Amino acid sequence: MRTLTEDEIEPLATGAWILGAGGGGSPYDGFLNLRELYRQGTTVELMQPDELADDDLVAVVSTMGAPLVGQERLADPELSVKPVLALQDYLGEAFRAVMPVEIGGGNGLEPFLVAAGMGIPVVDADAMGRAFPEAQMTSFSIHELPMFPLALGDIRDNAVIVTRAASWTWMERLSRAVCTALGSTAPTAKAPRTGREVKDCAILHSVTKAIRIGRTVHEARVRHDDPVGALLDAEDGRLLFQGKITDINRRTTGGFLRGDAVLDGIGPDAESRFEIAFQNEYLMGWRDGEATVMVPDIICLMDSESGEAVGTETLRYGQRISVTALPAPDILSSQKGLEIVGPRAFGYDTDYRSAFDD
Q1: 7: left (phi over 0), alpha (psi -120 to 50) or beta
Q2: 3-state percent breakdown (helix, strand, coil) of the chain, nearest 5
Q3: Residue 310 DSSP one-character state
Q4: Is 81 helix (H, G, I), strand (E, B) or coil?
Q5: Residue 357 CB partners (closer than 8 Å, separation 6+)
Q6: Are 350 and 291 in contact (CB under 8 A)?
Q7: H helices within the chain, ranges in order?
Q8: Separation CA 202–CA 269 (nearest Å)
Q9: Distance (Å, rounded) from C-alpha 358 to C-alpha 354?
Q10: Angstrom distance (rounded) from CA 240 to CA 232
Q11: Is-contact 103 128, C-beta < 8 A?
Q12: How far apart are CA 110 and CA 99, in angstroms?
């Protein structure tokens, strides 16, 4: 176990935003909150998964909802703690540690806000290795672990605990309905995990990975190198397209941000067009009508100059974008994984084809 240092907070935010694949909510507010807590003297411990005892209880947290709404509901450490405390009271057992359900976006920083408020460490792991829009899209679901109980809270005096659900899909439906009623965004504490379950079924060392990615981008900027190229070289990624956003269709419905965007090519891609579809996260990309990238590959739209990730809620006309792909954790492209997070899970009538297949 070690203390997360203040100079790691910004790289963590940058890396989590890239791993968010457009979703998970912007980490900027969480970054500001965590930095301010550190400047007031608070620190957070980062715990390696193998330091957990098998029977330790771990809280799994995220903010659920549409990223666009999250721009109006700023990150709040006290609010993030609320569902965790509600679930702890319901279980009658204290949590040993906390971890993100997804390392992507603002949800990659949320456990640090919870940890700061509760005085417990953050486990260096998550359940997605990126961000996904639905509650069943996790390594815990792929391993068929229990999906209940789950707690949600909001800025009012509301706290809801879903004590049982018939399946992971039903837990998504029930919790999404509550989230929508709470304003289409709500902090959550997912089904608690034991230390043994985390060690066996989580995606390990994803917090460290996010920090490493963020540092790669920041160090490239300091050297005045291409931050996008530096990231792709360091993480075995692929540059798929460079272009300028010329059209955006975006709507918030059912607790999700859904839509698509069109990019006209620039430079080597000047004669081509790229279309990207999203449901909170980027799901499918087509170059001149041909599908070239799809979930579970980590599709990231990055500002071509700064290397900052561009979320689905922050797409703007005229942005110069590099469309990139990073490899996803192997479990996501397993047969069971593709049933839950592959293109058909999102309604696309196509089999998964990795952007990394030559």
Answers
A1: alpha
A2: 35, 25, 35
A3: -
A4: helix
A5: none
A6: yes
A7: 9-19, 28-39, 67-70, 77-91, 110-118, 139-142, 168-181, 195-201, 206-222, 227-235, 335-341
A8: 39
A9: 9
A10: 11
A11: yes
A12: 9
Q: Which domains does the chain have, with CATH numbers?
A: 2-206 (3.40.1610.10), 226-344 (2.40.390.10)
pLDDT tens-digit readout, 127-184: 999 999 998 999 999 999 999 999 999 989 999 999 999 999 999 999 999 999 998 8
- pLDDT tens digit string along 310-331? 999 999 999 999 999 999 999 9
The partner residues of 63 in beta bridges, in order of sequence, read 187
User: Please, which residues bridge with residue 161 across strands?
Assistant: 151
Cβ atoms of 134 and 102 closer than 8 Å: no
First to last CA, the chain: 40
Q: How far apart are CA 24 and CA 14, in angstroms?
A: 12
Residue 106 · residue 75 · CB < 8 Å: yes
